[in-house]
Amino acid sequence: MREVIAKYIIEVYMKFSIFAVSLTFLVAICPLSAHADIPEGGINNKIEWNTLQTWSLPAPPVQIVHSLDGKKVFILGEDAKVHVFSAYGDFFGSIPVDKGVTSIDIEPYGGTLYLVDKSTNSFKALSVDKIAEVTTGTSPFLGSADAPVVITLFTDFQCPYCSKVAPLTEEVVKNNPGTVKLVLKNLPLRNHKYAEPAARAALAAKEQGKFWEYHDSLFARERLNPADFDTIAKELGLDIAKFKKDMKSDKVKKQIFDDIEQAEAAGVSGTPTIYINGRKLKKRSLEGFQDMIDEELAKGNSQ
To answer: Which of 47, 210, 284, 291 is deepest in the core (most CB within 10 A)?
Structure first.
């Protein structure tokens, strides 16, 4: 009996929480032009409120939900579309839905959109990914510089999964000569003590034209050790004095900082994360890579 009561309380709490959050966002985004007499802030009894932001919407809203991390907002409109925004009102795009859809929900971080169609008594789940805007810049890459398909890999030298995906991505490049470029972005995770200095060491080796050799040697180690950085540099015949200087240089540190910024902007939260022309790869296999590469090449041929 206690378990039933507890379950009921949790369900009521969750429904109330979702309603409260939805109401908060509706107050924040509904155009004020139609309610010019409503103040943007004030105090009434024991409540104080202030307008945080105001957006113009593509269509009258029916329902709104937002991701648990507060980064995405999904709005079901009367135009039979779900409009997706950032938490700051930046418009990401619209997803067409059936006219009978009357209710939406999302998984905690917005990776899945749930649709309830009252007219057909049906439920549908859609995967949702934001197209990442990632630039090559001065990042190390393999393949043709002007390849039409760009694979962007966010990696961490202390991540065991990254070490397994590295040879796979290199094989993909070999299988697609002239059409694919692999760009590596460093995303050293905070809980990996040696990932950041390893990234600096690899970029320092890049200054002497040995990035990929250094990259392969780092991943060949079962466990990273700070002593390995100089050892690998010596094995590759690098100028050690220059290597150590470059490891501490502002240029190398800025490269890593820029990579992390791009990862955050794209919504990357872990490694390895892979994008193909900005589209997130979900099937990390040769077939998964090739399918998306062929899709991108087909797009180019049709233009």
So the answer is: 210
Same domain, 157 and 298: yes
For residue 230 the two structure tokens come to 């100089």
Please give the model's pTM, rounded to 2 decimal places.
Answer: 0.78
149 and 223 both lie in a single domain: yes
**Is 134 within the bounds of a domain?**
no
Whether 81 contacts 95, CB under 8 Å: yes
For residues 180 and 161, what is the distance between their CA atoms, to the nearest angstrom? 22
What confidence tens digit (pLDDT) does each residue in 51-61 have? Answer: 998 989 999 99
Q: Among 101, 127, 153, where does a domain finish?
A: 127
Q: What sign has the CA pseudo-torsion 152, 157, 161, 166? A: positive
Which pairing describes strands 101-106 and 91-96: parallel, antiparallel, or unpaired?
Answer: unpaired
Contact 128, 92 (CB under 8 A): no
Number of H helices, E strands in the chain: 8, 14
| Domain of 246, in residue numbers | 141-302
Tally the domains of the chain: 2
* Percent over 90 (pLDDT), the chain: 79
Exposure string of 280-292, with b = 16+ CB inside 10 Å and e = fewer, is bbeeeeeebbeeb
**76 and 204 within one domain:** no
